[in-house]
Amino acid sequence: MADLYLKNLESERRQLWAKCRLHGLAKDTPERQRIAAIDEAIAAHKAKQKG
Questions:
Q1: In this predicted model, what pLDDT tens digit does every residue of 8-20 receive, in sequence order?
Q2: What pLDDT, on a 0 to 100 scale, did the predictor assign at position 2?
Q3: Residue among 18, 16, 20, 21 at smallest CA distance from 39
Q4: How many other CB atoms sit within 10 Å of the CB of residue 42?
Q5: Tens-place pLDDT, residues 1-51
Q6: DSSP labels for the chain?
Q7: d(CA 43, CA 15)
Q8: How far is Cα 51 from Cα 19, in angstroms, rounded to an integer?
Q9: Residue of 11, 14, 3, 17 lying closest to 46 (CA atoms)
Q10: CB atoms inside a 10 Å sphere around CB 38
C-alpha cells in the first residue's frame, strides 16, 4: 500500500524547492525553513517505518 503521508511530504518539498530555485530565495525565507522542516518530518517518518 502506498504511503500517502510520505508522498504528500515529498510532493510539497519538490514544489517548494522548485519555487525557491526559480526565484532564487535565500536560506532564511519561510519557504526554505519549511523545506528543512519537511526534511526532518520525512526522516522521522522513515525511521519510524523501519522500527
A1: 999 999 999 999 9
A2: 67
A3: 16
A4: 15
A5: 568 999 999 999 999 999 999 999 888 899 999 999 999 999 999 999 887
A6: ---HHHHHHHHHHHHHHHHHHHHT--TTSHHHHHHHHHHHHHHHHHHHHH-
A7: 18
A8: 34
A9: 3
A10: 19
